Amino acid sequence: MPHKTLIKQPFIVSNILSFGNQKGSVFIEGNRITHMIREHDTCLLEELSHLADDVIEAENDILIPGMVNSHYHSYTNVLKGTVNKLPLELWTLYTVAYGHALEEEDVYLSALVGCIEMMKAGVTSCVDHFPHIGKSEAALSAYEESGMRVAFAPMMHDVPDEEFFEVYLPDSLRSKSKGASPAEMKRFYRSLLSTYHKRDGRMEIQLGPNAPQRCSPEMLDVCRDLSETEGLRVHTHLLETKAQRLQGDLTFEDGVIGHLDRAGLINEQLSVAHAVWLTPSEIELLQDSGVTSVHNPASNLVLGSGIAPIHALKKGEVALGTDGSNCGTNQNLFEAMRLTALIHRVNQDYSFWLGAEDVFRMGTTSGARVLGKENELGRIVENDLADLVLLNEKTSLLSPLNDSISQLVYQENGSSVKSVMVNGRWTVKEGKLLTIDEEKVLRKVSERREAMMNRCREPLVRANQLRPYFEEVISNYNFQ
Description:
Elements: E1 4-8, E2 11-13, E3 21-29, E4 32-38, H1 42-51, E5 54-57, E6 61-65, E7 67-72, H2 88-100, H3 104-120, E8 123-130, H4 136-146, E9 149-156, H5 161-164, H6 182-196, E10 203-205, E11 208-209, H7 217-230, E12 234-238, H8 242-251, H9 255-262, E13 270-274, H10 280-288, E14 292-295, H11 297-302, H12 310-313, E15 317-320, H13 333-343, H14 356-363, H15 365-370, E16 388-392, H16 404-410, E17 417-422, E18 425-429, E19 432-433, H17 438-477
Parallel strand pairs: 1-5, 2-6, 7-8, 8-9, 9-10, 9-11, 12-13, 13-14, 14-15
Antiparallel strand pairs: 1-3, 2-3, 3-4, 6-16, 16-17, 17-18, 18-19
Helix pairs in contact: 2-17, 3-4, 3-17, 6-7, 13-14, 14-16
């Protein structure tokens, strides 16, 4: 028999017009919401109270849908504070160098650190765009242990940045490998799908081309074929910087978007992170094709990439991401929502400003679409999956509760989060993680830090040697 839980009398932010935002109760059987009980339906509430295995008294709480971090890199959680004063093309040299120093245990712990941070701040799902494909099982084992929902998108790439940007490099600095070949990536994905796809009802595999310009036509063909034959969603970086925009226009007919379109990948299965440097016609193409854009306000600011055209993009579907801990400040979606609501107000025409409701849906229902679960997640409604977050209403941030969504977007920072449920299972209860030994994980991360940084030394030497060659090329784009 499935476990039955009654969450009794919280203030519910449902994301459903028919229920709205009001006091009520939620009854969960197994991993699904089976009843939404309005405040005055006392007979049904009493009946379900007797049926419940677990009754949560929540009259002083707010219940919201679990939030979705729609673009994120788990390996970066152990790289906080490393490089944060360079634009993307130069910053990438260093994050790649640090990444070379990560062993499987580092990757496993880094993924757990991210799960700790996200779940304690009310994030129940993430899209992990993961570059270190040989260490995928280490990260996936962390997600399996954590109880968090994940769409795991291992990166595909076979065109290095120096080739795309036509950076002159001496032979001694040229990349020895372009990464896995298209055929190797196809075999890798098939193996991963057979083991982890749809595991435990909360783990799935997505296709993760690093970026269109970093993939050959053959690699994108593999991506399209796997997407069509296996029904997989696709997640990629897209036109994050001005340099990518300008070089892409020189390299491909119809630019980077044309390269992606010719591969047959611009459709409703695609989500694109950043999407900062788009033309109006490209925005229209993405929207007409059902593509979901993922806004990453913190990393766009940290890396100086620009401010995405959210007012235009939101005519379609826009979700929210935090990006990596070494370029996005933290994995807190409350911060991402607040930044999204605020940074676009530099436009003096306030008709362009985003409302709190718009932004809250980016972090919930639109994120569910990136997972391909828009009919199962991001809302609180009967028959949906039970990914839920309880917040203490009696905090300085939420009290008095004048407008729940406004205060969640503008005031909340995650400190009011009490309990988190993923797929019908509590992962956080009264502020304490139930699935992860937080103290043990953080202790191990600290113990491994020195050895990890020692392993970085040689790769960082190479990054420093590469930097002036990239600076020379990238600086040219600043004047165009």
